[in-house]
Specification:
Layout (H helix, E strand, L loop, with lengths): L1 E5 L12 E5 L9 E11 L1 H7 L16 E8 L11 E4 L2 E3 L5 H4 L10 E2 L11 E5 L4 E2 L6 H21 L7 E4 L3 H13 L5 E4 L3 H9 L4 E3 L9 E6 L5 H8 L1 E9 L17 H5 L4 E4 L5 H13 L6 E5 L3 H9 L6 E5 L3
Parallel strand pairs: 10-11, 10-13, 11-12, 13-14, 14-15, 16-17
Antiparallel strand pairs: 1-2, 3-4, 3-8, 3-17, 4-5, 5-9, 6-7
Length: about 350
């Protein structure tokens, strides 16, 4: 099979083409695994974190990609949940132990043995992938392959983030950064909380225009004060500066949810400007989002199909993965980016 493979860690500024076009053996599914012939795979900022070493793969080479859509091509021994030809998806959650206290209460995302697709195991920047059948998800028929791919991470992690804000209908929501995840959260919030207003902070005028197209009542730069204080804010940026600025826009008792696997360290000195009375006083909260559980993906796919949510996306060939990642790094974003791999 063809695959785009990461062989070494390093800055994409110095090496703009970190993934190598490679011929690899088609994988055989092991016990209770399925093999998927991949048709589409979303491109996520977390891939930049892997490539540049902020959340490095434990072993190289590795095939990145954790928003996989395709059809079951083969069942390994003991696998029978899906029939050959069934359309399935794979998300960031590749494996959890199933026995620890977190798994037992449904918080698989906090499992000490959590493994991530495309980091701890080969992912979807390839023509085929394998995964344990219990960690694959049926894809609702309402979505095309390329529409479904961003829902598996950008959508599911956005859904978890929105739940973690504790928002009630009629309360104001802020979104800091407006890429693949935030644009889906805005659509989701307008459906789940029809009386709430969504305010968007984004660096580029194009992102702010896009947010208004999707129903944001106000947009501004990350340095701007919103016209009203917000009950909850979700940050989807790779930087520290928006965290400090977002806290100033929080209502008393409000919560800032950070939707990021890692933050880039370049502007971490901005945290020195964090003022307790200005940013945290009056019981403001900061909460991180760690991975996703299977229940997040399952629930979100069902809700997204009912609405239905239609992601905005641009497509690239598998061989164009480096170009898609560069555009992501350079903040050339309108919705999601998807690799179109097969039929």
């Amino acid at each position: 099979m063809k695959a785009m493979v990461l062989n070494r860690i390093g800055s994409m500024t110095r090496n703009p083409n970190p993934l190598e076009w490679t011929d690899m053996p088609v994988p055989d599914p092991k016990q209770r695994e399925i093999r998927i012939r991949i048709s589409a795979c979303g491109v996520c900022h977390t891939e930049l974190d892997e490539i540049e070493g902020r959340t490095p793969p434990p072993a190289l080479p590795v095939i990145p990609g954790h928003q996989i859509v395709g059809r079951v091509d083969a069942n390994g021994p003991g696998a029978g949940r899906f029939a050959i030809g069934d359309r399935v998806g794979v998300a960031w959650i590749y494996h959890a132990c199933g026995t620890c206290e977190f798994c037992r209460r449904g918080d698989e995302n906090l499992c000490p043995d959590f493994q991530a697709t495309g980091r701890d195991a080969h992912g979807g920047y390839a023509e085929y992938a394998t995964i344990q059948e219990d960690f694959a998800f049926p894809i609702p028929e309402v979505f095309s392959d390329s529409e479904a791919a961003p829902l598996l991470c950008a959508g599911a992690i956005g859904y978890r983030s929105l739940n973690l804000t504790g928002l009630k209908d009629g309360e104001n929501l802020g979104l800091t950064g407006f890429g693949g995840s935030a644009h889906l959260v805005l659509m989701l919030a307008r459906h789940l909380y029809p009386k709430s207003q969504v305010f968007v902070f984004a660096r580029s005028p194009q992102e702010r225009d896009f947010a208004r197209e999707l129903g944001a009542v106000w947009t501004g730069s990350t340095e701007t004060m919103a016209p009203e204080l917000l009950h909850g804010i979700i940050d989807t940026t790779p930087a520290w500066k928006p965290i400090v600025r977002a806290l100033k826009n929080l209502q008393s008792g409000g919560r800032l949810v950070i939707n990021a696997i890692r933050k880039e360290s370049a502007d971490q000195t901005e945290l020195l400007n964090l003022s307790y009375p200005e940013h945290l006083w009056m019981e403001k909260e900061i909460k991180s989002v760690a991975n996703v559980a299977r229940s997040d993906v399952e629930s979100f796919l069902q809700i997204a199909a009912r609405i239905p949510i239609r992601p905005e996306f641009s497509e690239f060939d598998l061989s164009g993965a480096n170009k898609a990642l560069q555009e992501l790094k350079q903040q050339k974003i309108r919705g999601a980016k998807v690799l179109k791999i097969g039929d």
